[in-house]
Amino acid sequence: MGNTYRIITYGCQMNIHESEKIAGLLENAGYTEANESDPAAVVVLNTCCVRESAETHVLGNLGALKKQWEKYGTKIIVCGCMTQANGTAQKLKERCPFLFAVLGTHNIERIPALLLENSKKTLVEIKEEGVMHEGTPVKRAKDVNAWVNIMYGCNNFCTYCIVPYVRGRERSREKEHILAEIKNLIASGYTQITLLGQNVNSYDIDLHGKPMFASLLSQIADLDGTFRIKFMTSHPKDLDKDVVSVIAQSEKLSKFIHLPAQSGSDRVLHLMNRKYTRAEYLKKIDMIREKIPNAGLSADLMVGFPTESEEDFQDTLSLADTVRYNNLYTFIYSPRSGTPAATMDGQIPLADKKRRIQELIDLQFEIGNALAAESVGKTYTVLAAESKNGHILGETECGKAVTFDGDASLIGKFVRVKITQSKNSKLFGEVL
Ligand code: SAH
Ligand code: SF4
Ligand code: F3S
Fold first, then answer.
1. Helix spans in 336-390 (H)
2. Nearest C-alpha to atom 5 of ligand 3 is from which residue?
3. Residues forming beta bridges with residue 230, ordered by sequence position
4. According to the model, what pLDDT value does residue 119 have?
5. What pLDDT is recorded for position 187?
C-alpha cells in the first residue's frame, strides 16, 4: 500500500475545500493518493452533521472501513463538523476503537504529526475555538474553479442549525492574504474563483468593526486577468446595496446570487431567528433585480420546521412562486440535538414534511422549466468548465448550466454561446 491516502468528503463546499487542504498536508508529508480500487494506508473521513442523513452516511461508511482496518491496518481518521458536536468525539472513540484519530474542525493541521505516532489508542484532539492557519498547502482538484476561504465560522445561530456550534465564531482572513492567494491562482490558470464563508456579507466585521465585503469584491475584480468571481453564502439580512452594486458594475462578478430564504412565513422566520421578514427578503430580491436585470437566483428552502402550519407552508410555496428562482435547494427540517429548534414543541410528522417538500419540488420543476424555455434564443458568456462525452458543460454569467458541442481545448475559457433548446430545466446551445 505504501504511503497512500484516500479522503471521503461529506457536506458543503467548505468541507470540499478543507479536504483539498488535508490532501495538501498529506502530500507534503510524503503521501500519495490511492488508486480508486486499492486499499489506502490512511483514510480520512471529512464529515458533515448539518442534517441527520449526513451523519447516518458517515456511520454507515465506518462499518465498511472497519473491515479495511482489520485486513490492512488502515489508519482511519474522522474529522470535520460531526466530531465537533457535543460529545460525538468521545462517543466515536468508545464505539469505534479501531479509529486512529478523531479530530475537530480546527485540528486538521495536526494530521501529519499524528500519523508519525504509533498509538494503539484512538487519538482525540478537539479545539473549542478556531485559530486560523495561513499558508496551509492545498492540493486543488483539477478544475477551472478554485475555492478560497474568506472567513470561517458563523455568528448567526439560526435555531435549527448546528454550524455555529461546530465551526465557532466568525473569523475573517486578512485581505492581503486573500488577494495574494487569488493572484497566485489566476497566475496558475484558474478562471473561476469562488469565495467561501457561512455569511460572506459580514466579512471583516470581526477584524475592523464594519463589513468590507463589497470592497473586497471590487479589489479582487481589479486584479489583472480574465476570470469570474463567485461567492457563497449570503445571509439575506446582511446583503447590502454596496455588494449588489459591485456585482452589477463588474464584468468579472458572476450575476448569480444564492440567497437562502429558508421559509416564506414571517412566523416561522422569527422562530428560526433569521432576523428578516418575508417583505424584507422580497425587497432585497427587488433591489437585486433592479440593479442586475439578468441576475440568476437560487435559495435554500426548508419545510417542516417545528410548528409549521399548512398556512406557513403555503407562504413558502408562494415565496418560491413570486421569486421564480433558477435553482432551489429544498430540505426537510431535521432536528439537530444541541440546537434550540430540536426541543421545540410542535415537531412535524415525517409524512407531512414529505408531502410538503414534494409540493415544493413540483412547483420548482414547473418554474425551472419555464425559465429555461425563456432562455432559448438568448446569448450568454459561458465559462467552459468540463468536457463530458464530447460535450462541454459550462456556466453562464447568471449561473445557468449549459451543454454545448466543443473541443476540450475550450475548457477554462469564456465563450459566447447561443441557447438553441431547453429540455425540462436543462439548456443546450452552440458556440457563436
Ligand atoms: N450559512 C448558510 C447555510 C449553511 S447550511 C446559510 O445561512 O444559508 C446549508 C443549508 O442546510 C441551510 O441553508 C439550511 O437550509 C439547511 N439546514 C441547516 N440546518 C438544517 C436542519 N437542521 N434541517 C434541515 N436543513 C438544515
Ligand atoms: Fe447556519 Fe444560519 Fe449560520 Fe447559515 S447563517 S450557517 S443557516 S446558523
Ligand atoms: Fe458544511 Fe456540513 Fe459543516 S454543511 S459547515 S460540512 S455541518
1. 350-375
2. 163
3. 194
4. 85
5. 96
Reading the block at residue 316, the C-alpha cell is 413558502
- Cell numbers 472497519 label which residue? 66
Which atom of ligand 3 is the closest one to the Cα of 82? Answer: 7
d(CA 310, CA 59): 34
Please tell me whether residue 419 adopts helix, strand or coil conformation: strand
Measured CA to CA, the distance from residue 367 to residue 361 in angstroms comes to: 10
**Run means of pLDDT, 10 residues per run, the chain, 432 residues:** 93 96 97 94 96 86 92 95 91 92 93 91 86 90 95 96 94 96 97 97 93 96 97 95 96 97 98 98 98 96 98 98 97 95 97 98 97 97 93 97 94 97 96 94
For the chain, report the end-to-end CA distance as a whole number of angstroms: 50
With beta carbons less than 8 A apart as the criterion, state whether 124 and 95 touch. no
Cβ–ligand 1 contact at 253 (below 6 Å):
no
The reported pTM is: 0.96
User: In angstroms, what is the span from residue 333 Cα to ligand 1's centroid?
Assistant: 9
Query: Closest Cα partner for 396 from 428, 357, 363?
Result: 428
Res 45: pLDDT: 97
Closest CA to 380 of 308, 324, 429: 429
What whole-number distance in Å separates Cα of residue 19 and Cα of residue 80? 9
Rounded Cα gap, residues 149 and 110, in angstroms:
19
Question: Using CA atoms, how far apart are residues 311 and 26, in angstroms rounded to an integer?
Answer: 52
Q: Count the neighbouring beta carbons within 10 Å of the beta carbon of residue 125.
A: 17
* Shortest-distance ligand to the CA of residue 341: 1
Residue whose entry in the numeric block shows the C-alpha cell 475584480:
221
Q: What is the amino acid identity at position 367?
A: I
Residue 259 phi/psi, 5° resolution? -130, 90
Helix (H) or strand (E) holding 112: helix 111-115
